[in-house]
Amino acid sequence: MARLADYFVLVAFGPHPRGSGEGQGQILQRFPEKDWEDNPFPQGIELFCQPSGWQLCPERNPPTFFVAVLTDINSERHYCACLTFWEPVEPTQEGACARDAAARDEEADEGGLGALSPPAPGPPDQLFAPKTLVLVSRLDHVEVFRNSLGLIYTIHVEGLNVGLENVVGNLLTCLIPLAGGSQRTISLGAGDRQVIQTPLTDSLPISRCSVALLFRQLGITNVLSLFCAALTEHKVLFLSRSYQRLSDACRGLLALLFPLRYSFTYVPILPAQLLEVLSTPTPFIIGVNAAFQAEAQELLDVIVADLDGGTVTVPECVHIPPLPEPLQSQTHSILSMVLDPELELADLAFPPPTMSISSLKMQDKELRAVFLRLFAQLLQGYRWCLHMVRIHPEPVIRFHKAAFLGQRGLVEDDFLMKVLEGMAFAGFVSERGVPYRPTDLFDELVAHEVARMRADENHPQRVLRHVKELAEQLYKNENPYPAVAMHKVQRPGEASHLRRAPRPFPRLDEGVVQWIVDQAAAKMQGAPPAVKAEKRTTVPSGPPMTAIVERSGGLHGNSARRLEVVRNCISYVFEGKMLEAKKLLPAVLRALKGRAARRCLAQELHLHVQQNRAVLDHQQFDFVVRMMNCCLQDCTSLDEHGIAAALLPLVTAFCRKLSPGVTQFAYSCVQEHVVWSTPQFWEAMFYGDVQTHIRALYLEPAEDRDPFSVGEAPPQGDERSALDVASEQRRLWPTLSREKQQELVQKEESTVFSQAIHYANRMSYLLLPLDSSKSRLLRERAGLGELESASNSLVTNSMAGSVAESYDTESGFEDAEACDVAGAVVRFINRFVDKVCTESGVTSDHLKGLHVMVPDIVQMHIETLEAVHRESKRLPPIQKPKLLRPRLLPGEECVLDGLRVYLLPDGREEGAGGPGGGPALLPAEGAVFLTTYRVIFTGMPTDPLVGEQVVVRSFPVAALTKEKRISVQTPVDQLLQDGLQLRSCTFQLLKMAFDEEVGSDSAELFRKQLHKLRYPPDIRGTFALTLGSAHTPGRPPRATKDKGPSFRTLSRNLVKNAKKTIGRQYVTRKKYNPPSWEHRGQPSPEDQEDEISVSEELEPSTLTPSSALKPSDRMTMSSLVERACCRDYQRLGLGTLSSSLSRAKSEPFRISPVNRMYAICRSYPGLLIVPQSIQDNALQRVSRCYRQNRFPVVCWRSGRSKAVLLRSGGLHGKGVVGLFKAQNAPSPGQSQADSSSLEQEKYLQAVVSSMPRYADASGRNTLSGFSSAHMGSHVPSPRARVTTLSNPMAASASRRTAPRGKWGSVRASGRSGGLSTDVGSRLAGVGPPQANGAPPDPGFLRPQRAALYIIGDKAQLKGVRPDPLQQWELVPIEVFEARQVKASFKKLLKACVPGCPATEPGPASFLRSLEDSEWLIQIHKLLQVSVLVVELLDSGSSVLVSLEDGWDITTQVVSLVQLLSDPFYRTLEGFRLLVEKEWLSFGHRFSHRGAHTLAGQSSGFTPVFLQFLDCVHQIHLQFPMEFEFSPFYLKFLGYHHVSRRFRTFLLDSDYERIELGLLYEEKGERRAPQACRSVWEYVERLSKRTPVFYNYMYAPEDAEVLRPYSNVSNLKVWDFYTEETLAEGPPYDWELAQGPPEPPEEERPDGGAPQSRRRVVWPCYDSRPRAQPDAISRLLEEMQRLETELGRPPERWKDAWDRVKAAQRLEGRPDGRGTPSSLLVSSVPHHRRSLGVYLQEGPVGSTLSLSLDSDQSSGSTASSSRQAARRSTSTLYSQFQTAESENRSYEGTLYKKGAFMKPWKARWFVLDKTKHQLRYYDHRVDTECKGVIDLAEVEAVAPGAPTMGAPKTVDEKAFFDVKTTRRVYNFCAQDVPSAQQWVDQIQSCLSDA
Predict the structure, then answer these.
(1) Nearest to residue 442, comparing CAs of 419, 481, 473, 415?
(2) How does pLDDT run across 265-274, given as a tens digit for each residue?
(3) Of 86, 190, 360, 658, whose CB neighbour count within 10 A is largest?
(4) Residues 6+ apart with CB under 8 A from 120
(5) What is the distance between the alpha carbons of residues 1556 and 1535, in angstroms, rounded to a whole number?
């Protein structure tokens, strides 16, 4: 029984003490005046009576009623029912509040309220004060409170003749039962009667209509989100203008949470004075009057529910996890069926006439029933996860959260995780976990109805029926006797509050009330306590749990087969069938990704353990450990599937004997898993084991079985669970004697204690590493480190800390590292022991004992491990696959032998078995080798299904761009290993994980060696220069370091030091002495002539150095004449070396040797083309105006328009531009700068004059007039037209002061168009680029064109005034800088070789990252500028390209322009010449841009040359028939310009190459033929053997100018960046790429027809061009094979090809077209040129007509006339002449020794230099060749000795041998001189090769 009301209080308005406008509540009277002992008077009632504050009113308001809830310190709720009415203010009060009232009245008058005089009688300024009757109770009977307070108010207002004291006294003494469904009628002694019904069960909440109202106000979705928010501990705030609604809403929300109890702040009505409570950090449910909405807006983390507006506002920073699907959607649909039953019928054609709609009270219960079902589904089976830790004296219960989540399949579910971690659920476990207690509706539901709910899921009507049944029970609980609820309570009359009350509410007589209370108390003492016995039962557990959603793990669907594989593998291991087991292992490791397979593994292994121990041999042990590791690696730290728990007993059971007395257990090999360092895992395991043992305590011995088997699986059949046992024990407990109780408590306590010791041991096993020096592992593993800081121990001040500290300081550890590990483990175990022992009630003495024990346990274990570690190191290593040695180039040596690594997938999809990639070649297991030239990985795929494929991935050391350490999982064991990721600019990526056998020092050594090879301190350390000289083969490189330095290096160093000390100018003049002719061996005159291709119009005499030069220079000159530049100048007819004036008149340009000593410009070649009229001494001054002294020189002249292309560095501030800028600066005398500017202007004028079109118009001497004018007046006249205007010159001026070595920047703007469009129509031939990237529209062309266009950087050419007099014009363009090329390339690398698998596979992410790199945009700009220059040159204007320092973008543009304009450069020979001239001689900084040495390391790799090759590739794609070389040639150069295999692309200029002696040694010092120094030499040799560099579609049209499209949409990504061949590595080292030869003919066992040789070609593994060569290559190969079969010397492929072509030409002549069958001359118009714009001179000289060039030009007439007009390209390229006429360079008779056992015979030998062959015939007149010796294969020519059968008469010295790669040929000449002649001829032929 309980009191209906504890206190009755009367609260009235009182003035505020500080005299502020508001009043405050005052308690006038309270009854009883003394506090009840069991229930003190709650504080702060006066605040809650008027939550919005105490205020006076100008009119009488009707009485109000609401119930506030207060929570006391013991979290008991007190219900305060408040009835408020208004009374006129008494005079005393009035005086106190005069000011306040006056202020209020003024407000009222202003507001227009004055007009409405209050209806109540009395003076107009009468004010009314609130007075509140409050009833305080611990029971929640709202209606009874309303009636009771209403009765008191009625008696007062109506003046009934009843004593108020009696009524209040009766109210306070009224006792009612708490629960049990009883019914009680009460009367307060005023002729009233009320019936009170108590609920059937106390535990079910009472909601009346509050839940239904809440749904009505907010709607389903909003209420669901509030429900989830309250459960996941968020802050919820309700707003409403009605207090009653606020308390109802809060009550409703709490009712929905049942069976969980809300345990945080709960204030349904919060007074205004306490609003700061809202900013509390803890969760809450609070209601606030809507007037304070503004304050609620400021709260950032509060969910606001506005009941009046029906909205719920969730702040951005708050995430409410939704219910797990499908529960969310199911709940939603059931709620809508309950709330809106008509929804189902809305679409019916014939809806039923009437719908039975539930009453609001019933609907309320139905809604609650839905949520009750929801909880039953969520928590179904929760009792199976309860651990009974103690039964006596009080039950201690823990919940195994991880197991629950795992079995429900909701591990990732955010909602359930948060609910289980919340306070409400902790309360739920402690309250409902008890096994023996009264049960209620929820217990029944969760135990017995789950199956029904699952069956009903898809039947809405059945679900609804179930909901209604539950609702009935809930309704019955609240209203057990529905019929008899008859109340009789007097109420005041209508509008009674407006009548003037007879008097204020009277003061009650305390004595009377107290007397009544005391009387009742005395009566109660006599009566026996009416205790209704609670019916306690065993709580049903219900069926074991199932997953909420049956998630069929798609991958592991066919689990039965997988489990079979796991079982078989384990039985093979234990039967010793290791080979079988090994085959199955990969499949098992894959299967173990599935949960069922992991469980199966644990069960199977359990079967092989007898008496807690299983001794294995080494191989078995390895297998078991690998499988365990594989299982554990997928366990999360919580171990929700119990895998780690099942394996824990096993890791201490399986062991192997290492030596007598030393045993290694499996736990020492499975420590690397996060689960072992998770305290929650250990706690759950500990409690589970304790439960098993406690249960065993109470079971009869007959039932007792092996505790382990009991703990693992849920008990079957009649076996009682631990909860059943506990329930039984709790029932018997009161009947036991005191001694028996004590004994049981003691037994349980010691059981827990012994388990704690057991677990301390187990934990030390798994936490102490085998090698205690590896402390970092322990620290890195999640857990120990962090737990140091955040202790989760419940015993804050326990012994753990002190003991651990003393242990650390006093224990006898010398080794600090080990001590560190041990200390951490001890602290970890101590914390664990503290927590579990405190929770499970272990006595403090036992706890102390444990703390003393733990350090000893750890110490003992460390000592055991030391022995194990020592012995385990002695084990023979496991047999790993044999390392495959890579094939090396001649001269390449291994620096570091193979380190075992795993090569991991790099993000290219094919290699890892992606969509089109075939099987997974990666990850592969093998080794990485470091050689002097490359980094090479060779190995086999780890996937056993791929077969015996060898995977090779390599790249040159020099191409390494980035190296970073990574930490990765090895593919097989899944252990975390150190790794390296190496990225190269040849688009290879080695992502490697080191095998565990590779020590960290080996890995570090690898990195250091790699770094040393990548960045040698000096360029001489590169592979190309050390090859064949520094290292003697077979000796390790270190040995050679210690030798004394060679003479050569000494002399170099001397020169270097001298250079530092002496002034620079002096040394450069003095030093340079190239090797003289004698040292190099005099080539024959014929040979020299061949070296320089002389163009036809020059007399040969002009080539010889003239006598005007000094003798020492003459040698220099003769060597310079041989250079590519000079050969090209001769070809173009650009002048002579002679400085005699006799020829000067006719030639506009001359070759000037002014730079032969590299004194003017270090980075230019020795010979330069300058205008004839400019003297050498003037050039020095001109050069000062340009950056890096790179003054304008001619590099190409158009054969047709005679326009010239010039190149230079950017201008300095004092250049031409400076001249125009300094408009008004007076100059005192002529300074040097002015003179150089003048020279510069003269120079440009001379260039203009030297062009035939402009020479006459401008005359020679115009400049002198200008210059005199300039010297006379200080104001120089503006001299050039410039097409952009603006001012700053600071940029260019400041650049001049920068040190020489630095790079001038090439100003750029991110993506803006390549050309500035404001050049616009004024610039001849250039308008805004057309939409498709085609050349600009020629409508802009002006009749008057400038003679010279200077293409410069926008930033340099600013602020220049245009002037129409001069013939040159400046074209400012925006270009990108070298650093942008670098950044863009980095992104391109990332895009093509990502390094890790893409998050969203597919082409989209690749294309996105490709676009981000902006690489194609840069190529677009380059092509655009180049096409512009081509147009200008073609139209007859000369162009000077003057960008940045003149060695990056200038070189790209100039080379592209020549390639597009001149078909010669599109041949193999021509392209070589172009690269040698523009890139090598003109000083592109290959070493700097490729970061070849240590000095360049910081600047990084900037692929300017690669970008040029990419542009050429784009042009090649658009004009496939215009190039003699194949796309492979471009890739080959792209690879080798960074590989440092050849010397060609080393160093930054000719000057540096000469300094190192690289430039001229190739002729003289002949090395062994295999060591090619030059890439060109290599290409030439290779071309003779194979057509790999040749383009069969080559069918050039003479003098064709190409104009490619340049828009990004027309560009393709170069396959050089994306393709890969894993079978043999990159195919650009040809010797290595020739894989194993095809199997020979013996494969036909039956001698019949050959079997079909089909084989699978995998993309990304096989080289497709080799596996499927094109038709022509295949035919040529076939011809060679057949010739070899016939015993004839195979013909060169080139000869065969030329013969075919010649035959085709003859065939195609009669009609001018090829026949349709012809191989090359196709009759279909092919993709010859993009439809470009041609600028052609029209009939009238000044106008320009436009002709669109279409494919008709290949018609017979056009092509024949063109051929007649111009020489064919083949004359430009002498090597590829047709093979119709024999080339006989030298011939004669020689004796040749036949093959083995054959005689000597005289033959007629022909040495053919063109075909590079030595042929022999039977007789001189014979036409049929008997045999051929290919000179490419000749290694040496040496004096021979006579053998058997040699001619007798001949001198011994006439014998000589020719040694080829295949065999040695013995020759004998007729006499000694002719033998000498032959040897010389063959030698010279070889040196030409």
Answers:
(1) 473
(2) 999 999 998 9
(3) 86
(4) 59, 60, 126, 128, 498, 500
(5) 24
